[in-house]
Amino acid sequence: MATSEALTAGTKVETSASRSRGDVGFYTVLALCAAAFLISIHVIFFKAPVESTMGIVQKIFYFHVPIAYSMYVGAAVCFLGSAGYLARGTRGWDALARAGAECAVAMGVLVLVTGALWGAKAWGVYWTWDPRLTTALLSVLIYVAYVVLRAFAGDGDSERKFAAALGVLGAANLPIIHYSVQKWGGNHPKVITSGGGGLKHPDMKLALMLGFLTFTLLAVVLIWTRVRIELAAARLGEAEEEALELGVGEE
Amino acid sequence: MSANQAAQQTPGAAGQGTADDRGTTFRAVEGGNQMQSGEKLLVEAYAFIWIVVLVFVASMFRRQRRLDRRIDTLETALQKARAKSAGE
Fold first, then answer.
1. Which of A34, A148, B6, B85 is deepest in the core (most CB within 10 A)?
2. Residues B75 and B58 in one domain
3. Per-residue pLDDT reduced to its tens digit, A125-157
4. CA–CA separation, A201 and A49 (whole Å)
5. Which of B54, B67, B79, B85 has the highest number of chain A CBs within 10 A, making it the mutation to test binding with A?
6. Domain that holds residue B15
């Protein structure tokens, strides 16, 4: 009995120690992300020159492209978590998949809206059925379907498996988005992809690199936060089970 | 001559006629690119980014706080129950 109590206590101490280590890591990434945002905004607005033909609206590019990249990060995490859940069936993988999908939706909405605002100036219309725009919209809708499924279809094993299958299949669209411009053409610019002319000023390159760093950190923060919530929900579930066993009601 | 009178006598900003012309005719800017202000679109894009990120983070924060509160309440109740059962 005493040994069992000591083991339980030891596990608890270890859990809270690893939790506090996790907290330090999380707040460090959060602080880095906030600093990267501030530096990025400074470089974009005060250092990077205004583009010669498009004017100031081109500065949307320094956030739009990194946001698209972080949508891929969220979707890739959802794919990994979903595949892990299908292979192992543990709640940790499921939490990772759910976090990735929510991040992909948030970033997907941002990429569609910032792209539309750029298009209003560059093309004179907010939306056109261009291959890249259409495939990006399709991807966002897939992850919206995932999030809606998880929110309203219950939290049973079959629902989690169904969602995991969607998370795995949804990732198939990502390379299609990426190569759609090369395969099918369209209006979407290809400045930094193969065949593009690239950025002609070092401060433009710096602004884009900082944008990538900032939004990678933001994606990490969002996914990490969401996983922490899922783990807290799992702890709550365990505590509720123990409370039921002991016949304890919440006062 | 006041500034107001001077403004009425000088041609319009786009160089399209006098104050009288502007009072009687509206002319559209030609060319799709000129239909939208780049500055306005840029501000809208950045504002939207911040709003989405803030709403996302705030909703996470609220969920986490609600869960933490429930865990704390339950763990306190469990500790009391454990102490009581150990005393018996």
1. A34
2. yes
3. 899 898 899 999 999 999 999 999 998 887 788
4. 8
5. B67
6. 1-35
